[in-house]
Amino acid sequence: MKKLLAALAAASVLVAGAFVASTVASDPANAQTTETQTREAPKRPDKREALDEVLGGLVTDGVLNQAQADAVRDALEAKHEELQAAREERRAEREADRELIIGFLDDDVISADELAQLGDDHPFNDPYGPFASAAVDGEITKAELDGLRTERNGHRGPGADADKAVSPNA
Fold it and tell me: In angstroms, rounded to a whole number, what is the distance separating the alpha carbons of residues 58 and 73?
């Protein structure tokens, strides 16, 4: 019984890892195809097919029976849906914060009252975060945000400051 539980746990970890890896991995270059492209874009692996293959192999090897394999598949799919819903919720929260910040910056200053509306877990309110020096006086100005953005973008390697290119008249 211990072997069965250990094998089930190991199989679950492997399958979950493969499931998560295939979910997280994406190929954004596929969206940039042109009509002149001659080779076919690589086919994304079917997550369900891979999961069925792994679980089928475990059933064939006698590590799991079909009912257990079905339970593992159902549990992994439920967890996947749960994680996807959480990602969507976080994305919506970030978008709501962006909209709020855009409104706050109408007067080029995010006041202490406005910072309080963002909540304690927002990066603007993190006393050790990248905005801590800007918020030390209780407000963050648009100029401070622009300076932090320029500083951050300056560390992105070659071509990071392409907007500072020398003009031909200089």
Answer: 12
Reported pTM: 0.50
Phi, psi dihedrals of residue 140, rounded to the nearest 5°: -125, 125
Please say whether the beta carbons of 80 and 18 come within 8 A: no
Rounded CA-CA distance 71/78 in Å is 10
> Can you tell me the distance from the alpha carbon of 111 to that of 104, in angstroms, rounded to the nearest whole number?
8
Write out the DSSP string of 99-134.
HHHHHHGGGTEE-HHHHHHT-TTSGGG-TTSTTHHH
Choose among 52, 60, 64: nearest CA to 10: 64
Q: What residues in the chain have per-residue pLDDT under 70? A: 1-11, 13-38, 155-170
Report in angstroms the alpha-carbon separations of 125 from 6, 32, 112, 138, 140. 45, 38, 10, 10, 10
- The DSSP symbol for 36 reads T
* DSSP secondary structure code for residue 26 in this structure: -
pLDDT value of position 28? 52
Strands in the chain per DSSP E: 109-110, 140-141
In contact, 11 and 72? CB cutoff 8 Å: yes
Tokens in use for 161? 């400051």
